[in-house]
Amino acid sequence: MTSKTRFYDFPPVTAKQWKQQIQAGLKGKDYNELLVWDSPDQIKVKPFYSAEDLEGRPSAQVKTPDGWKIGQVITEGDARTILGKAKKALERGAESLFIVSEKELDLNTLLEGIDLGVNPVHLDLHTFTPQITEQLNSLDRSIRGSVFLHRDVIGHLARTGNWYRSMKEDLNSFFEMIINLEGMHTLSVDGALYQNAGANRIQQLAYTLAHACEYFQFAESRAKKVSFPEPVFRMAVDSNYFFEIAKLRAMRLLWATLAKEFGAPATCHITAQPTRRNKTLYEYNANMLRTTMECMAAVNGGADTVLNLPYDALYHKENEFGERMGRNQLLVLKNESYLGAVSNPADGAYYIESLTQHLAEKALALFRQIEASGGFLSSLKKHTIQKKIREQAAVEQEQFDKGELILVGSNAFKNPDDRMKGELEISPFGQKRSEKTLVEPILEKWLAEGLERKRLEHE
User: Are 32 and 287 a contacting pair, CB within 8 Å?
Assistant: First the structure.
């Protein structure tokens, strides 16, 4: 039986007609003043979007992964202790492991009980020796693609102000790593640092891209032909939901553009984690609401691996309860909310598509400025990058201090009965370092730090 109804047979409506209808409803009030606002990324956000907003722009298909992995961060212990924690995490729902260690680890012991064919392992090792290279080379080639090495020597310079050893030694060790550990993900860029230090999204994208470009240029200077691995970008995500979805999508577009210049893989692996910048010490349970929103943005933005930040990460050491709560948030998003069941859910959303294009275009323009001025390392040495991030962070800090940017429980809706002084297992506040540095380090800082420090002092 064929339906004869024409109920859904509406004539098309242009953006101009929509705007006229809105203006009629405003009864003389100014459309731009009332309904169009400026984002921190200098993008004017309109009250509605349509296909016309994408006209005249190059069509850009964002290729996102078919699925995402629930990651678990483990930072404490020797190889056997970490392996025990890893097994428990995998039994309880984790799908990928992110292991951070300042000590040299016995990787044979660490990896013996992990099925790398099913559960990828990310290794952020501050100590990288020939023995570690030998142990990694002993892995079967069929599972090497499940090993991610986060040996970001330029990121270490940006974060600490110093190389591990020296510029020459560190960059040479990076080159040797991508040559000797073929098949593994040996190129990692820590873009999360810039977000956690206060950079806006355009800066985060441009600095991350310029940071990666330094590695590729160095590798090309060492060899005429290099088989580049698929890069890994570590990104931090804040609570501005749609903008953060667009940011991760823009990162993929930008990388695909740069990859063509070096003959590198057009795809990249994005590891996303909630930012520390908007987390609070007081009313700490609100951190779970923030991280839920941020993890949702990470998934819908197309992250390959999502690492949650425990609600108590500011003031507690690594602990089973905080880790379980963080992991369960991801399990709920994946298995009960079905986030990730649809590949690339943001496709066709005019607002997000438009934000993606704007962010990518502005970040590409900034990236070109950095390259024209000598590149990322040159800008770090001139302290240009640090200055720009510091200026942007100050703008955001002022908004927080004035109450224009609200963090519940910290600068608004405070509970005067909250007491936190006895809960601090670690200091949440930045520590001054006395060592000399080659360049000014880029320092992470959370917005509520000054306010909550005073509050602790007066408990």
Answer: no
Predicted structure pTM score: 0.94
Strand order of the β-sheet with 121-125 is: 147-149, 121-125, 96-101, 69-74, 305-307, 269-274, 232-237, 188-190
8 A C-beta contact, residue 140 and residue 117: no
107: phi > 0 → left, psi -120 to 50 → alpha, else beta; which? alpha
192-242 pLDDT, tens digit per residue, is 999 999 999 999 999 999 999 999 999 999 987 888 999 999 999 999 999
Q: So what CATH class is 69-359?
A: alpha beta
Q: Give the relative orientation of helices 130-137 and 167-180 as an angle to the nearest 10 degrees.
A: 10
Domain ranges within the chain, ordered by starting residue: 69-359
| Rounded CA separation 109/170 (Å) | 27
What per-residue confidence (pLDDT) applies to 5?
A: 59
- Residue 434 is predicted with a pLDDT of 75
Where residue 130 falls (left for φ over 0; alpha for ψ -120 to 50; beta otherwise) is: alpha
List the chain residues with pLDDT less than 50: 1
Q: Cβ neighbours of residue 228 under 8 Å, at least 6 residues apart? A: 178, 187, 216, 219, 262, 263, 264, 265
Alpha carbon distance 349, 351 (integer Å): 6
**In 3D, which of 188, 282, 283, 303 has the Cα closest to residue 237?**
303
pLDDT value of position 1 = 42
The number of helices, as runs of H, and strands, as runs of E, in the chain is 16, 10
pLDDT at 55: 83
Burial class (CB in 10 A: 0-12, 13-18, 19+), 94: buried
124: part of which helix (H) or strand (E)?
Answer: strand 121-125
